[in-house]
Design a protein that fits this description.
5-stranded antiparallel β-sheet, globular, alpha+beta, 4 helices, HIT family, subunit A, 152 residues, binds zinc ion
Length: 152
């Protein structure tokens, strides 16, 4: 599947910049673990499109230590738990784009995409082309996901 990963022309790394800010609907970080965190995708494929990101700025998984990788997988599972509770999805796409050839939008800082899916959403999305019409604002998604992590 195609993940929308285009970011504004921002100075430095968008993820390092986000993690340096206090958590709010501005930086979109919903949960912080010890070595990784959960952030909303600013250009979501569907509502509830999350990403798990290590605090370490590294371009691929092999440059992370095994403790960080393990926590990223635990956080990925927690994302699916939280999203099931909030959005009742019928499935998920979970994936990592590593390198430009694979379509990574933020090349320097590896991240795991977690995209909730519903039967028929692909047809609906493709009919709309690149303009994604989502049923709720990023602020609403942020509030719901952050509260669900706090309660999980
Ligand atoms: Zn970074």
């Amino acid at each position: 599947m195609k993940y929308i990963d285009n970011h504004d022309k921002e100075e430095g790394c968008v993820f390092c910049n986000a993690q340096a800010k206090a958590d709010s609907a501005e930086n979109l970080i919903a949960f912080r673990g010890e070595r990784a965190y959960v952030i909303l995708n600013r250009f979501p494929y569907t509502s509830g499109h999350l990403m798990v990101i290590p605090f370490t700025h590294a371009p691929n998984l092999e440059e992370l230590d095994s403790v960080t990788r393990a926590e990223m997988m635990e956080l990925t599972a927690r994302c699916t738990t939280v999203l099931r509770g909030v959005y009742k999805p019928q499935g998920f796409n979970v994936g990592v784009n590593i390198g430009k050839a694979a379509g990574a939008g933020v090349l320097g800082h590896v991240h795991i995409h977690i995209v909730p899916r519903w039967t028929g959403d692909t047809n609906f999305m493709s009919a709309l082309g690149e303009t994604r019409v989502l049923p709720e604002s990023l602020e609403d998604t942020y509030r719901r996901v952050r509260e669900a992590f706090a309660a999980d």
